[in-house]
Design goal:
Blueprint (H helix, E strand, L loop, with lengths): L2 H11 L14 E7 L5 E11 L2 E5 L11 H7 L2 E6 L5 E9 L4 H12 L2 H8 L7 E7 L1
Antiparallel strand pairs: 1-2, 1-4, 2-3, 3-6, 4-5, 5-6
Length: about 140
């Protein structure tokens, strides 16, 4: 089983709390990202919850290239997301990409959430990590 699938299964089995294979606690959401072919990919993403929405960052562990899901979110007006809780809730969320300076401010919050994010900047060869706001609506 691949790494992301392990995280997805742990998320769903533990009301959104993930401690294995990596300790994310309850700071993840599962985003159902539409693909060009009409299917969708479930992607576990570190998230910061704020005012009925969740921010997710396209860090790709510091890769110099955007992860493929960035382009799917840029094309989507809304996506289903699964958020922590007992039970886990599935919401439809509107998608918006943060512009500067809001993006930079939220990036600082991600680095405060996990020191690993700060190390990604050095590996990214100058790539600016897109950050999306997913605003939930029931």
């Amino acid at each position: 089983m691949d790494f992301n699938q392990q995280i997805i299964e742990a998320f769903r089995a533990n009301h959104g709390v993930v401690t294995e294979p990596v300790d994310f606690g309850s700071s993840l959401v599962l985003v159902h990202v539409p693909k060009k072919d009409g299917t969708e990919r479930v992607t576990p993403l570190a998230a910061i919850e704020q005012e009925s929405g969740w921010h997710v960052v396209a860090s790709a562990a510091g890769s110099p290239r955007h992860p493929a899901w960035v382009f799917g979110l840029r094309r989507a007006q809304s996506v289903p997301i699964e958020v922590p809780g007992d039970p886990i809730r599935t919401l439809t969320a509107t998608v918006s990409e943060l512009e500067e300076p809001a993006r930079a401010a939220m990036w600082e919050r991600f680095k405060a959430l996990s020191p690993g994010f700060a190390g990604y900047e050095a590996k990214a060869e100058g790539r600016v990590f897109p950050i999306f706001r997913l605003t939930g609506r029931d």
